[in-house]
Amino acid sequence: MQIGRLLALCALGESSAAMVDTYVLPRLQYIMSRSLSDEPHESLRSRISELVSRAPATKILPLALIHEDVNAMNIILDDANNIAALVDWEAASLLPLGTNGWCIRFLSTVNRKRVDYETENTTPMAAGFWRGFVDSLPAELRDRNDVLDAVVTAMQIGLVMYEFWPGNEGLSAAQMDQCLARLDWLEETFRPMSGA
Length: 196
Hints:
By secondary structure, the protein is α+β, with helices and mostly antiparallel strands. The protein has one domain (2-194): Alpha-Beta Complex (Aminoglycoside 3'-phosphotransferase, Chain: A, domain 2), CATH 3.90.1200. It is 53% helix and 15% strand. The strands form 3 sheets. The chain has a 3-stranded antiparallel β-sheet with strand order 1-2-5. It has a two-stranded antiparallel sheet with strand order 3-4. Strands 6-7 form a two-stranded antiparallel sheet. Helix 1 packs parallel to helix 5, helix 2 (17-35) packs antiparallel against helix 3 (42-54) and helix 7 (145-163) packs antiparallel against helix 8 (173-194). The two termini are 22 Å apart. Residues 1-17 form the signal peptide. InterPro entries: Kinase-like_dom_sf. Keywords: Signal.
């Protein structure tokens, strides 16, 4: 819950529409044309193509300061196990709110040899994250299904941009399978919670 609250509180209150038009959409299109142009992974290509068509819906989200690597190594806890700090902000960017929400996947699963394994805590952690995130949204956004649906799309877009970060566009077939599995998990876990 604390991670969800923290990420929601990074909203800046400004529109993200320009960032979606000038960075998010071009980046997704670049990934489609350069990273998936010769690859046989049609399922992933199809999912990213769907995200390109859904990306304009994220313009309703406020712009947010996005920590692009929310993981256990970057979270400092106090003596009561509350989050005291989130460190390692050098790759931070300004993107639609929730773009880094996909990180809950890494925090709620065990990763061995680059494969995610769900545990008995995965689903409760995801639900707690979502509750903390939604409860910390500005009141005018909190109860809007279109906003919550856009957050799920932003989470998926953030995952794709993370997986295909500049300089790492050539993913192996196994990495593409993993990316697709993570996209599926985000969809199956959070889209029902959004009320969409």
